[in-house]
Amino acid sequence: MTVRFRPLDPVQDAELLHAWVTHPKSAFWMMQDATVEDVEREYTAFAAHPHHQAFIGLVDGIPAILMERYDPAHLELVGLYDPLPGDVGMHFLVAPTDTPVHGFTRMVITEVMRELFADPATARVVVEPDVANKAVHALNEAVGFVPEREIQKPEKKALLSFCTRAQFETAVGAAA
């Protein structure tokens, strides 16, 4: 499988994203009741923000991944930890499917991390998933994330975790 990322287009991708973020399997995305217009508005705001980027991941040419990168010194985690130079915040979502492929989500997070570390300025990736999202905690650990502590965000109790380039390379092998 080949994976490539392209910038998300908030207008062109709104319907696609709406189907993903409102799906029952995407409950931790916290957009279950969003309309297509809500999704377009949210991602238009992200696109205008200097410290946030969103991307669609194409797997063998088919949209299957939503990836967001942000600067945790300016968004999401301000005041909740002391950011270091080179920290990059990340969210990812795998498009819901009725025909899951074993190992697909692990492949996705591995490719997301490769994409983030392709930028030489990225020293460490920071995530803050909901403490109840045990499946994503296991995926995060599989690619090298180390949980630090629980934090309280306005919308959830989150598990603050970090992954350095070296931790990622060790977790997934030298091919990283």
Structure explained in plain terms:
With 176 residues, this protein is of the alpha+beta class. It contains 5 helices and 7 strands. A 7-stranded mixed sheet has the order 1-2-3-4-5-7-6, sandwiched between helices. It is globular. The mean pLDDT is 91.
Task: Give a quick rundown of the structure.
This is Lysine N-acyltransferase MbtK. This protein is 30% helix and 28% strand.
Supply the number of helical segments.
Answer: 5
The dominant shape is: globular
Oligomeric state: single chain
Structural class: alpha+beta
**Which radius of gyration do the C-alpha atoms yield?**
15 Å
Q: Find the count of extended strands (DSSP E, 2+ residues).
A: 7
Span from first to last CA?
16 Å
The sequence of SSEs as H and E is EHHEEEHEHEEH
Spatial order of the strands in the main sheet?
1-2-3-4-5-7-6
- Arithmetic mean pLDDT: 91
Summarize the amount of helix as a percent range. 25-40%
Relevant terms:
176 residues; alpha+beta; 7-stranded mixed β-sheet; 5 helices; 7 strands; 28% strand
Helices and strands in order, then pairings?
Blueprint (H helix, E strand, L loop, with lengths): L2 E5 L6 H8 L14 H13 L3 E8 L2 E9 L16 E8 L9 H14 L6 E4 L6 H9 L3 E7 L4 E8 H8 L4
Parallel strand pairs: 4-5
Antiparallel strand pairs: 1-2, 2-3, 3-4, 5-7, 6-7
Helix pairs in contact: 1-2
